Amino acid sequence: MKNLRLAAASSLVALLLTSVLAQKTAQHLLSSEELKKVIPVEFFFRGQKAPTQLRNAAGFQTANDKVTFGALVDASGYSTAIQQKYQGMLITESKLNIGGSELSPGEYGFGFTADKFVVMNVASEDTLSVAYQTDAELKRAVPLKLVEDGTGYKLYAGKKWVSVKPE
């Protein structure tokens, strides 16, 4: 009888633990199907809407179900000064550490300039500016991708990259 109660209690604890763990999603890169659900067709930035490029989109979901995603945009309708910095859109539901600097949840434009990775608010005002790294060993550079890196990610644009870590 004692063994039966112990077995029942152990089963109950295991069931509760499994239930709690099942509710907590593991941090992961978003699949192409998940990206299709979150990437907007257009992104409002500096008084205009720019079409987004789903084929050049990436994102991740944190363990507490918050998402961060970005995509390159067609910035051809913007002035040359804005086009030099604005290459993509970024939306994050969680606080991020980008290249050692903190970024609050929100909607932003971003770009890799000659020497920095720049994040701007939707009014095109610089919010964050950090040095980027270059991966000379990268065999096949693509316009935009996100790669897992320990507890964070590397956001690549070609061979340029910055570290992105959810906080």
Fold blueprint:
Elements: H1 2-23, E1 28-29, H2 32-38, E2 42-45, E3 48-61, E4 67-73, H3 80-83, E5 88-92, E6 96-98, E7 101-103, E8 106-112, E9 117-120, E10 126-130, E11 133-134, E12 145-149, E13 152-157, E14 160-166
Antiparallel strand pairs: 1-3, 2-3, 3-4, 4-5, 5-8, 6-7, 6-14, 8-9, 9-10, 11-14, 12-13, 13-14
Write up this protein.
- The protein is an alpha+beta fold and 167 residues long.
- It has one domain.
- Helix content is 20%, strand content 44%.
- It has helices at 2-23, 32-38, 80-83; strands spanning 28-29, 42-45, 48-61, 67-73, 88-92, 96-98, 101-103, 106-112, 117-120, 126-130, 133-134, 145-149, 152-157, 160-166.
- The strands form two sheets. Strands 1, 2, 3, 4, 5, 8, 9 and 10 form an eight-stranded antiparallel sheet that branches.
- It is globular.
Offer a concise description of the structure:
The protein is an alpha+beta fold and about 170 residues long.
The number of distinct helices, counting runs of at least 4 residues, comes to 3
The count of strands amounts to: 14
The general outline is: globular
Largest sheet: 8 strands, antiparallel
CA(first)-CA(last) distance: 49 Å
Assign a percent range to the helix content.
Answer: 10-25%
List low-confidence stretches.
4-23
Cα-based radius of gyration, to the nearest Å: 20 Å
* Class of secondary structure makeup: alpha+beta
What proportion strand?
Answer: 35-45%
Keywords:
single chain, 167 residues, eight-stranded antiparallel β-sheet, 3 helices, 20% helix
